[in-house]
Amino acid sequence: xxxxxxxxxxxxxxxxxxxxxxxxxxxxxxxxxxxxxxxxxxxxxxxxxxxxxxxxxxxxxxxxxxxxxxxxxxxxxxxxxxxxxxxxxxxxxxxxxxxxxxxxxxxxxxxxxxxxxxxxxxxxx
Length: 125
Hints:
Blueprint: E1 5-9, H1 12-24, E2 29-34, E3 37-41, E4 45-51, E5 65-69, H2 73-85, E6 89-98, E7 103-110, E8 116-121
Helix pairs in contact: 1-2
């Protein structure tokens, strides 16, 4: 149902380096580079980062939460490690999250603008 998602960033080059590293672990690559935006995806840009003038340059809670599907728990782990190495902050280490309806494995990070990015997979018992 959702074709693509865009998030605002205060420093396009810094954010592009972060997303390039973190998303590579999930099989997404930088596909489009424009003066004020960068698009990532597999066949076409599914996740865009857009330069937003006037955004705070310190980490803040932007209210954005994007969850990306991983194929395996190893991909979730790799996403988390790559995001932290690229300057992201841990917002939930990789692990099982049991809930009433579903058991899933996820990791959460925030970028330098406070956008919360999650990688998730649903391992079989």
